[in-house]
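quick one if you have a minute, typing this from the bus. theres a chain ive been looking at and ive put its sequence and its fold in token form underneath. please have a look and point out which stretches look like helix strand or loop to you. anything you notice is useful, everything is just below.

***
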Amino acid sequence: MASILDEYEDSQNRGKSAQRLSRLSTTNVGIPHTGFVNVRLEEEKPIFNKQRVDFTPPEKINHLVVCNNQLCMNLGKDSLLRIDLTKPDQRNQIELGRKDDSTVHRLFLDPTGSHLLIGLSTRECLYLNRNTQKVRSLSRWRGHLIECVGWNKQFGNETNTGPILVGTSQGVIFEAEISATEASLFNTNPDQYFRQVHSLEEDGNPAPVCCLEVERGLENKDYIIATTRKRLFQFVGKEVEGSEQQCFSSIFSQNQDQLPSFQEFPANMGYSEITFYTSKLRTLPNAFAWMMGNGVLYGQLDFVRPNSLLSDVQVWEYTSDIDISANKPISIVLTQFHFLLLLHDRVKAICTLNGEVVYEDVFPDKAGTLKKMIKDPVGGLVWIYTEKAVFRYHIQREARDVWQMYMSMNRFDLAKEYCRDRPECMDMVLAKEAEHCFQNKRYLDSAKCYALTQKYFEEIALKFIEAKQEEALKEFLLKKLNNLKQNERTQITLLVTWLSELYLNQLGQLESDGNTIIFQETRKEFHDFLSNPKHKECLFNNRSTIYDLLASHGNVDDMVYFSVVMQDYERVISHYCQHDDYSAALEVLSKHCDPKLFYKFSPVLMQHIPKKVVDAWVQMGKRLDPKKLIPALMNYSQMGSSQQINETIRYIEFCVYEMTVTEEAIHNYLLSLYARYKPDSLLWYLEQAGTQASEIHYDLKYALRLCSEHGYLQACVLVYRIMELYEEAVDLALQVDVDLAKSCADLPEDDEELQKKLWLKIARHVVQEEKDVKKAMNCLSSCNLLKIEDILPFFPDFVTIDHFKEAICSSLEEYNQHIDELKQEMEEATESAKRIRQDIQEMRNKYGVVDSQEKCASCDFPLLSRPFYLFLCGHMFHSDCLFQEVTPQLSSYKQTRLEELQRKLAATAQTSKSRHRPAPKEEGDTSSIGKGSAVTSREQIKSDIDDIVASECVYCGELMIKSIDKPFIDPEKFEEEKSSWL
């Protein structure tokens, strides 16, 4: 926790920063033209927020390093304190155990926070691993004062540093490797090797190595940056295959033949420091800042450039309050857009975009002398320590005001990149970019930017109109239209109408100028605008206005295209028909396949291009209703009517024979066409249409009248036959052909009397009209119903019997044969009756023997215990058992009848209780079997009951056969039966 004085100091600093913010914000007072209003509900926190760490060291702090949330500090002379920042309460203090006068010169901590190197002033170096408590000496490093270490980020891990570079105060660069694993028998030191790979000089003399940075870039290239007091060296190269231990020596050897690439500055303050900024962990750094004598050299790192990594390099010269002879800067840290410079009493933050000091924080004297500033690359915190205290800076939303700087530099792409989540700032950047483009006469770019801003629409539109930049105005309107929401219908309507007018004006101007190429490009652009689905609803709702605009410019082609886009095909087809372009009209019809339009325009098209129209109809197939096309089929013109008729017949035939249309109107129309223009096809159509009235789809009466009017007698005969008017068919067929009449006479097969009558008509016609006796005799042989005596009255008196001799003899023979057949049938009937009487007599005398041990087939009790029935099959039942077996199998009618007979039998039993003889017939009850209320005796009732119950064996008779599909257990009693088994 910070002390009260520290909190007071922090509040004062926040107050100062708030005052600076208020002074900056006064320039933006008021409501801007952008439409956005900046309203902050609470004070915005500063970018650099300092906090004093709640830690009071027991001794003065000499050195401090932080990396990967691991903090190590040297306290006093011989103490080392380690703190895991994720567990700040668990501190680990280690004594170095040095008895001589050596002090800690520098501390070095690798990026993983696992390996700590302790450089001593006595030119010795110690090593401590995070997982151990033992400090180990690096014997190979003895004799060198370590100034910097270049860690290996590629191969370093918790137990091994991998190959690293070490810089000394004598300007020598060594390559080394340290392993924290247990020492072997022959190797007790953690340092694996320590070899010199290069040396740095200034003005011909060795210069201390101030900083080392090692990175691996693309294509496995290694990049090494080394700095001295006033020089910055770059080494680039690839490792030699097979050199697993000395991976950097090959890179330095590649640069020995030529001088290494370096930058030098004249001023020298005795040391220098370089820092890097990496946007993400485990990626290459993308910026650097080098603090040296002349100032701070900062820029970008480009690992693609072949000669030098440094790009966009600038030098920030020290301000007047920084004197390198007396007040040297101590340390430097680079962030995304600033570098922090640590002086003896304060920290300055300088923006790398414009070189301005944006933050300055003065430390009080009570905190002690500022010693060093470090940045943790993992946590992102900046640490500053004195002998008595430790501070840290939180960097919050560093990029919040960067967009303003980029905007002032006219680097609008970067400005927009850093204000994407702030629409009010984005609007200001776009407005500034649009104005910049407009002033530089880049009107199209200006229009695109203005369309994305919230500036007044009228102001921008008038601006382009005054500049006479219609193309830019059109671009502005298009972009503005695309940014509107669907519910802003009024604005959309205005912009769509205005753009249509602009396009039409531009097309008219280009057409008059004769600029064909640009005209076609503009027309295509206009067509794309009309067909844009985003504008479809607006164009459809205002299509009458667009039609008026197109008509006012006389732009017929675009009007047709717009009609197609609006699916107003009726207007398009009407236009083509008015201009006698019937093929184009049919093409539109065929393309969009709207049946309603086919029905409307087919009459006109049929007059001029009948063949093409019928082809289109055929292609449409069942999507068209042929009945609705009859007006078009019957709309014949005076010229070319024969072609229309032929095409009409072709389409109707297609409907009947291929689409199997059953509409009566279509078939009747085909009949009329055949009767008038293709009589040869009429009879064939009637024959294949069927001979049953239910199969026929045309009107028989209409067909008969039509054939009769045109004198097609054979077709009339066919229709009469279908109508079953056989007499009319025979009468009419006799006028055509006798054989045709004969085929008609054989049709009424079920009516022999009618058939005979028809054949008599044929015979009379043959005898009386044709006077052909031989044909008349053929009629007798063709019809078995006719006899010679039936046709004799038709012959004249002068005909001799010789013509009928054979027929008469044949007729007499048939009569004799028929008489013989009747005699034989009578004899067979007499014999059959005799056998039946014998069977009846035998059945009356038939009997069966019942043993005393016999049992009922149903209940399995002795049969003789009560009345029973005996069947010929051998089954025997008690009378009541038989009733129970038979009753469920009877129909409802027989069950009712059986109950009625049982009631009557019970009634007769009561009347005859006191008598020993059966009751006379007069005392019997009445029966209703077939005769209503006839009087029956008791025996008759029993006989009727037996006829119902005992007519056949219940196990062997028809009842058993009929019950084969019934379940053994009644479905209604199934659950009850099922539960009884459980």
Confidence is low (pLDDT under 50) at residues 1-9, 14-33, 916-935. The longest helix spans residues 805-844. Residues 855-897+947-964 form one domain.
